[in-house]
Protein backbone atom coordinates (compact mmCIF):
# COMPACT_ATOMS: atom_id res chain seq x y z
CA UNK A 1 0.00 0.00 0.00
CA UNK A 2 2.95 2.31 0.62
CA UNK A 3 4.04 1.84 -2.99
CA UNK A 4 0.53 2.60 -4.20
CA UNK A 5 0.38 5.79 -2.14
CA UNK A 6 3.80 6.83 -3.42
CA UNK A 7 2.77 6.11 -7.01
CA UNK A 8 -0.46 8.07 -6.70
CA UNK A 9 1.33 10.97 -5.02
CA UNK A 10 3.92 10.98 -7.80
CA UNK A 11 1.19 10.82 -10.42
CA UNK A 12 -0.65 13.76 -8.81
CA UNK A 13 2.61 15.76 -8.66
CA UNK A 14 3.33 15.08 -12.34
CA UNK A 15 -0.22 15.98 -13.28
CA UNK A 16 -0.06 19.31 -11.46
CA UNK A 17 3.34 20.09 -13.00
CA UNK A 18 1.97 19.34 -16.49
CA UNK A 19 -1.04 21.58 -15.85
CA UNK A 20 1.23 24.42 -14.74
CA UNK A 21 3.39 24.05 -17.86
CA UNK A 22 0.29 24.01 -20.07
CA UNK A 23 -1.04 27.17 -18.38
CA UNK A 24 2.25 29.04 -18.95
CA UNK A 25 2.31 27.87 -22.61
CA UNK A 26 -1.24 29.15 -23.12
CA UNK A 27 -0.30 32.52 -21.61
CA UNK A 28 2.77 32.74 -23.88
CA UNK A 29 0.68 31.91 -26.96
CA UNK A 30 -1.88 34.57 -26.04
CA UNK A 31 0.85 37.19 -25.58
CA UNK A 32 2.46 36.21 -28.91
CA UNK A 33 -0.89 36.50 -30.69
CA UNK A 34 -1.45 39.94 -29.19
CA UNK A 35 2.00 41.12 -30.31
CA UNK A 36 1.40 39.69 -33.79
CA UNK A 37 -1.95 41.46 -33.97
CA UNK A 38 -0.39 44.79 -32.96
CA UNK A 39 2.36 44.37 -35.58
CA UNK A 40 -0.16 43.56 -38.32
CA UNK A 41 -2.34 46.57 -37.42
CA UNK A 42 0.68 48.89 -37.34
CA UNK A 43 1.81 47.61 -40.73
CA UNK A 44 -1.55 47.61 -42.55
CA UNK A 45 -3.37 50.46 -40.79
CA UNK A 46 -1.35 53.66 -40.64
CA UNK A 47 -2.45 56.24 -38.08
CA UNK A 48 -5.32 58.42 -39.26
CA UNK A 49 -4.54 62.06 -39.90
CA UNK A 50 -7.61 64.18 -40.54
CA UNK A 51 -7.08 66.98 -43.06
CA UNK A 52 -8.42 70.45 -42.42
CA UNK A 53 -10.28 71.30 -45.60
CA UNK A 54 -13.50 69.75 -46.89
CA UNK A 55 -11.98 68.69 -50.24
CA UNK A 56 -9.12 66.81 -48.58
CA UNK A 57 -11.62 65.09 -46.27
CA UNK A 58 -13.70 63.93 -49.27
CA UNK A 59 -10.56 62.62 -50.98
CA UNK A 60 -9.68 60.67 -47.81
CA UNK A 61 -13.19 59.19 -47.72
CA UNK A 62 -12.87 58.11 -51.37
CA UNK A 63 -9.53 56.46 -50.65
CA UNK A 64 -11.00 54.63 -47.65
CA UNK A 65 -13.97 53.44 -49.73
CA UNK A 66 -11.60 52.14 -52.40
CA UNK A 67 -9.60 50.25 -49.77
CA UNK A 68 -12.80 48.82 -48.28
CA UNK A 69 -13.93 47.61 -51.72
CA UNK A 70 -10.54 46.00 -52.37
CA UNK A 71 -10.61 44.22 -49.02
CA UNK A 72 -14.21 43.08 -49.63
CA UNK A 73 -13.26 41.64 -53.03
CA UNK A 74 -10.28 39.87 -51.48
CA UNK A 75 -12.49 38.45 -48.69
CA UNK A 76 -15.04 37.23 -51.25
CA UNK A 77 -12.31 35.61 -53.34
CA UNK A 78 -10.88 33.80 -50.34
CA UNK A 79 -14.36 32.59 -49.33
CA UNK A 80 -14.93 31.19 -52.83
CA UNK A 81 -11.53 29.49 -52.80
CA UNK A 82 -12.30 28.01 -49.39
CA UNK A 83 -15.66 26.67 -50.58
CA UNK A 84 -14.02 25.13 -53.65
CA UNK A 85 -11.31 23.43 -51.61
CA UNK A 86 -13.79 22.07 -49.06
CA UNK A 87 -15.93 20.70 -51.89
CA UNK A 88 -12.86 19.08 -53.47
CA UNK A 89 -11.88 17.59 -50.11
CA UNK A 90 -15.36 16.11 -49.66
CA UNK A 91 -15.29 14.66 -53.19
CA UNK A 92 -11.84 13.16 -52.67
CA UNK A 93 -12.79 11.65 -49.32
CA UNK A 94 -15.90 10.15 -50.92
CA UNK A 95 -13.76 8.68 -53.72
CA UNK A 96 -11.40 7.29 -51.11
CA UNK A 97 -14.29 5.59 -49.31
CA UNK A 98 -15.54 4.21 -52.63
CA UNK A 99 -12.11 2.80 -53.47
CA UNK A 100 -11.75 1.16 -50.08
CA UNK A 101 -15.16 -0.41 -50.37
CA UNK A 102 -16.31 1.04 -47.08
CA UNK A 103 -19.30 3.30 -47.38
CA UNK A 104 -20.05 5.97 -44.86
CA UNK A 105 -23.67 5.86 -43.84
CA UNK A 106 -25.32 9.25 -43.79
CA UNK A 107 -26.96 10.14 -40.50
CA UNK A 108 -30.66 9.39 -40.89
CA UNK A 109 -33.42 10.87 -38.83
CA UNK A 110 -36.65 9.07 -38.08
CA UNK A 111 -39.57 11.12 -39.36
CA UNK A 112 -43.20 10.43 -38.57
CA UNK A 113 -45.21 11.43 -41.57
CA UNK A 114 -48.62 10.36 -42.82
CA UNK A 115 -49.18 9.24 -46.39
CA UNK A 116 -51.04 12.49 -47.13
CA UNK A 117 -48.17 14.60 -45.81
CA UNK A 118 -45.65 12.54 -47.78
CA UNK A 119 -47.59 12.94 -51.04
CA UNK A 120 -48.05 16.64 -50.34
CA UNK A 121 -44.28 16.99 -49.81
CA UNK A 122 -43.50 15.09 -53.01
CA UNK A 123 -46.18 16.53 -55.29
CA UNK A 124 -46.62 19.96 -53.76
CA UNK A 125 -49.98 21.70 -54.07
CA UNK A 126 -51.13 19.30 -56.82
CA UNK A 127 -51.98 16.64 -54.25
CA UNK A 128 -55.68 16.77 -53.39
CA UNK A 129 -56.59 13.09 -53.01
CA UNK A 130 -56.99 11.92 -49.43
CA UNK A 131 -55.22 8.64 -48.80
CA UNK A 132 -57.40 6.86 -46.29
CA UNK A 133 -55.82 3.45 -46.46
CA UNK A 134 -58.32 1.81 -44.10
CA UNK A 135 -61.35 2.84 -46.16
CA UNK A 136 -60.67 0.32 -48.91
CA UNK A 137 -60.12 -2.67 -46.64
CA UNK A 138 -62.58 -5.60 -46.68
CA UNK A 139 -64.71 -6.33 -43.67
CA UNK A 140 -63.97 -9.86 -42.52
CA UNK A 141 -66.18 -11.69 -40.03
CA UNK A 142 -64.41 -13.87 -37.57
CA UNK A 143 -65.50 -17.48 -37.99
CA UNK A 144 -65.85 -19.67 -34.96
CA UNK A 145 -63.32 -22.43 -35.00
CA UNK A 146 -63.95 -25.83 -33.49
CA UNK A 147 -61.53 -25.22 -30.65
CA UNK A 148 -63.39 -22.09 -29.57
CA UNK A 149 -66.70 -24.00 -29.69
CA UNK A 150 -65.22 -26.76 -27.54
CA UNK A 151 -63.97 -24.21 -25.05
CA UNK A 152 -67.42 -22.62 -24.85
CA UNK A 153 -69.09 -26.01 -24.47
CA UNK A 154 -66.81 -26.98 -21.58
CA UNK A 155 -68.18 -24.09 -19.56
CA UNK A 156 -67.39 -23.95 -15.89
CA UNK A 157 -64.26 -25.86 -14.97
CA UNK A 158 -65.77 -27.04 -11.67
CA UNK A 159 -68.52 -28.95 -13.49
CA UNK A 160 -65.93 -30.61 -15.69
CA UNK A 161 -63.93 -31.75 -12.66
CA UNK A 162 -67.02 -33.04 -10.89
CA UNK A 163 -67.95 -35.07 -13.97
CA UNK A 164 -64.52 -36.65 -14.13
CA UNK A 165 -64.23 -37.37 -10.43
CA UNK A 166 -64.83 -40.85 -9.08
CA UNK A 167 -65.02 -44.11 -10.95
CA UNK A 168 -67.67 -42.89 -13.37
CA UNK A 169 -65.46 -40.05 -14.58
CA UNK A 170 -62.57 -42.41 -15.14
CA UNK A 171 -64.81 -44.74 -17.02
CA UNK A 172 -65.92 -41.86 -19.26
CA UNK A 173 -62.30 -40.80 -19.86
CA UNK A 174 -61.38 -44.39 -20.70
CA UNK A 175 -64.29 -44.73 -23.12
CA UNK A 176 -63.51 -41.34 -24.71
CA UNK A 177 -59.87 -42.37 -25.22
CA UNK A 178 -60.86 -45.39 -27.28
UniProtKB/TrEMBL annotation:
The alphabetical list of record keywords is: Acetylation, Actin-binding, Coiled coil, Muscle protein
Tell me the domain of life: Eukaryota
Q: Name one GO cellular component term.
A: troponin complex
Q: Which InterPro entries match?
A: Troponin, Troponin_I, Troponin_sf
Positions in coiled-coil regions: 14-102
Q: Which GO terms describe its biological process?
A: cardiac muscle contraction; skeletal muscle contraction
| GO molecular function terms noted in the UniProt entry | actin binding
Q: Which Pfam families match?
A: Troponin
Query: Which proteins does it associate with, and in what oligomeric form?
Result: Binds to actin and tropomyosin.
Q: Which family does it belong to?
A: Belongs to the troponin I family.
Describe the function of this protein. Troponin I is the inhibitory subunit of troponin, the thin filament regulatory complex which confers calcium-sensitivity to striated muscle actomyosin ATPase activity.
Q: What is this protein called?
A: Troponin I, fast skeletal muscle
Q: What is the organism field in this record?
A: Upupa epops (Eurasian hoopoe)
This protein's gene is called Tnni2
Amino acid sequence: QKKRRAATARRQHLKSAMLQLAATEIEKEAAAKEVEKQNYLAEHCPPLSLPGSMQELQDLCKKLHAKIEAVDEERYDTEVKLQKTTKELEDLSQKLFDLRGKFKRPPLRRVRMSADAMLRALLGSKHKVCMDLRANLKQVKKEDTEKEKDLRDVGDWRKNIEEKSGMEGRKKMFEAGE
